[in-house]
Write a structure and sequence with these properties.
Elements (H helix, E strand, L loop, with lengths): L7 E6 L5 H16 L3 E6 L4 H13 L4 E4 L7 H9 L4 E4 L9 E5 L1 H14 L5 E4 L6 H16 L6 E3 L5 H14 L5 E4 L2 H13 L9 E6 L2 H5 L5 E4 L2 H17 L7 E4 L2 E3 L9
Parallel strand pairs: 1-2, 1-3, 3-4, 4-5, 5-11, 6-7, 6-8, 8-9, 9-10
Antiparallel strand pairs: 10-12
Length: 279
């Protein structure tokens, strides 16, 4: 930042309780602290009114920049507010906004396509997309990746099953899915947390994840590798995501006139014990 300006960075995220977000925040905070910045984090709860209040609070307190996950259906007036105040902004996870701001995102469609291809390769033909609610751009992209993989292999069975992104919802939704759609043998999940909840449900039913039913998560939070059984997942590495996000912001602050850029982070399928051929 220019001399004399605040070294406090605002960060607005959705659902701070999600372990993915908590690990990402750690990566941001650790990286920015080394550069002498303080990070203040607010939770929009994916609510546009609460988000507006969060942004206005950061503007009033003269934060030097904003790291931001836009809430679903964020209105154009919110973008105008940020542009009017010339606040350096890096969006992440959601909200590329045609290059208005720097953006760090995930290859959502390709990643869920990869997860679905893995299950198809094991012999599954009745695969559900499990988790998430509503129509955020992230979920839409992930569902598209799942559906395109099915189409490529000539599979006409597709099922999208809602569940809020926490363990209890994942558990309850999987219990209902197993009751109403016993033909389904595998699921591509919207996130690791809901996938872990689904695994708990299978164990409650006396089943073993990866044996009677295969599950692929998304994120690779720390709990994914330590779960019983360890979760097969799309690895984004949230801590490293946070490090990259902080680096993009630092570069923006050092070179405020440089063109905006979108960075899509790589992913890797980590095969553990919750996927196998259908029995």
């Amino acid at each position: 930042m220019r001399s004399g300006e605040t070294r406090e960075i605002g960060m607005i995220i959705h659902y701070i309780a999600n372990p993915f977000n908590a690990e990402l925040i750690s990566g941001v905070s650790d990286t920015l602290e080394k550069e002498g910045y303080l990070v203040s984090v607010l939770d929009s709860q994916d609510n546009i009114d609460r988000q507006r209040r969060n942004i206005e609070a950061f503007i009033r307190s003269s934060r030097g920049a904003l790291l931001w996950v836009p809430a679903a259906n964020t209105p154009s007036e919110t973008l105008d507010l940020l542009k009017t105040h010339r606040l350096p902004v890096v969006t992440f996870i959601r909200g590329a906004y045609d290059g208005i701001f720097d953006h760090v995102g995930i290859q959502n469609e390709s990643a869920t396509s990869c997860a679905t291809e893995h299950l198809i390769g094991l012999g599954h033909t009745k695969i559900a997309y499990f988790g998430g609610v509503g129509s955020s751009e992230t979920r839409i992209q992930r569902i598209e990746g799942y559906q395109k993989a099915l189409i490529r292999h000539g599979l006409d069975y597709a099922l999208v099953w809602d569940a809020k992104d926490h363990k209890l919802s994942g558990l309850e939704a999987m219990l209902k899915l197993r009751q109403t759609h016993p033909e389904v043998t595998a699921a591509v999940c919207n996130g690791d947390v809901v996938a872990l909840g689904a695994s708990h449900a299978l164990r409650r039913l006396g089943e073993t994840p990866g044996k009677s039913f295969s599950i692929v998560g998304f994120d690779d939070i720390q709990d994914a590798s330590t779960a019983t059984p360890p979760l097969t997942t799309i690895a984004i590495e949230p801590y490293n995501f946070g490090v990259k996000l902080a680096q993009v912001l630092i570069n923006r602050l050092k070179e405020p006139q440089s063109p905006t850029a979108t960075t899509l982070l790589p992913f890797k399928l980590k095969i553990r014990e919750t996927t196998d051929s259908p029995k």
